[in-house]
UniProtKB/TrEMBL annotation:
Keyword check for Nuclease: no
Binding residues for Mg(2+): T31, T48
Biological process terms in GO annotation: establishment of localization in cell; protein transport; system development; vesicle-mediated transport
Record-level Gene Ontology MF annotations: G protein activity; GTP binding; metal ion binding
PROSITE patterns with a match to the protein in the record: ARF (PS51417)
UniProt-listed NCBIfam families: small_GTP
Keyword field contains Metal-binding: yes
Protein name, entry field: small monomeric GTPase
Topology of the protein relative to the lipid bilayer: Lipid-anchor
Superkingdom of the organism of origin: Eukaryota
Listed EC numbers: 3.6.5.2
Amino acid sequence: MGNVFANLFKGLFGKKEMRILMVGLDAAGKTTILYKLKLGEIVTTIPTIGFNVETVEYKNISFTVWDVGGQDKIRPLWRHYFQNTQGLIFVVDSNDRERIGEAREELMRM
């Protein structure tokens, strides 16, 4: 009986885990956003080849954020990261006006 209450308490008040997929065109700022969330500061980044994975804690939620590279050769691989994902962040560099249409097309392709 005590085990039932422990599981109920954990379900109501325990830490929740969520897997988040973050994608967008290359140089959109995905890795910068990830490390701002994780470390609270802006860090110097290099283009992501493959992916970065970091855990970000917020209140009682543990977010595992998958930051997947945005180069055109990597984009077809985005779909392989969807399994068991609870959220998607699509990052757009609104200052890069010439690529807004390309970003829209990639989002629609997903």
